[in-house]
Input
Amino acid sequence: MQYEKAYNFLIDKLEQELPSWLTYHNVTHTKNVIEAAEHLATTEGIYGEELTILKTAALFHDAGFLENHQKHEELSCKFARTILPAYEYNDEQIELICSLIMATRLPQTPKEELAKYLCDADLFYLGTAEYNNYADKLYAEFTKSGFVKTESEWLIKQADFLATHTYFTTTAQKEKNDLKRLILQKVKTKVKSIQSHSHKPTFSELVQDSFFMVSGVILAAFALKGFLVPNHFFDGGVTGLSLLVHEIYHFNLAIVIVLFNLPLIVISFYSVGKSFAVKTFLSVILLGIALILVPDYALTEDKLLISIFGGVFLGIGVGLVMRAGAALDGIEVLALYTLKKTSFTITEIIMGINIFIFTIAAMRFGIETALYSCLTYFAATRCIDYVVEGLQAYTGVTIISGESEAIKYELVNKLGRGITVYKGERGFLPGNFDVSADCDIIFTVISRLELRKLNNLVHDVDPKAFVFASTIKEASGGIIKRRHKH
Output
């Protein structure tokens, strides 16, 4: 094996041909890995042919970056199989070198003893005083490739990776684990510092929220004054209760809606957040003003059209306000407050309140009006769901695979999603009921837009993986589906 000649050839090629944006996976990294691999191996008594094979694997482990940064391990092996025969490496030696290279693919899976030295050498910097320097270079590279977009996202990925990483060799564990733990604590502190600062909306976000709020209020007022109020129809929630009081006692609808929502806004200040409460207060006040300014004008007398389109316009209006991080109807806040005092779910509480409203409406204004009002409420809630969730509706995905470690890495570090892992058994197939094996059952929550990407990631790792998804209808601890944190 002519290692020195192969070294001179490849190092020169890396210096000349690697893209300039590779600030971490450059020729310096390759040299560092070779040095670290040799240090770890010789410390533990590895010499001769084994050491040469290890150093050659370190030399070629990132050669694939010459062609593409994605799946570079496979490309590195392809490159090694092409180049190394000219430097008197036989097929068996080359295949061992490729096996060592593939072991460095994250999550690292060393099978041979030599692979453990290469894996530790590849991530040797995690436990060194130069960690921050190398992390900054890796962040710049990942930003360029689109793997991460913000510094906060990068810090979270660092913390996750450091927390799950393990050195395989005794020497690396002794020399690097203590400092790596200190580095992890520092990174976690930075993450907590970022997360503790509330999100300050940008000017464009404020403009967008204002547009949603004003548009939502106008549409809601249009639905109430153009469809529901002139025809004595009702809705559910606080709006329905306000309409009921307006019809029975003839109080001003604008004042009733504002008064009924005020206590719920106060509750939301403590249970949801200041931003949510302030936006909701402004939205309710704007709705009250709009109801005063907009005259009653029945656009149609067809009860079916009134119930459907009155609900549609009201639902779109309420949904737009919710997308701005507020609410026009405080029923969800009331349900959350009641939830803390009872064993009922939010859905059951809201249903109970609406049953009360529609029962009173049926007794006072007739069964037909109450039934049409139920249809109005149904149309409004469906439109709210569509406007708020849209394509961002969340989906729970469960994955069962023999390659769970690799899939976990892909989901966390490439899809950017948190995961939950259950311990289970897979197998028990017809005809082979007695055959089974322990496995990790992975669960994660994604948006509908991400489902295809997740399926592709899983398929690349394990085409035989069992994947099934289900729509998430309700999550404990939430109030409404909204984009902003309050």
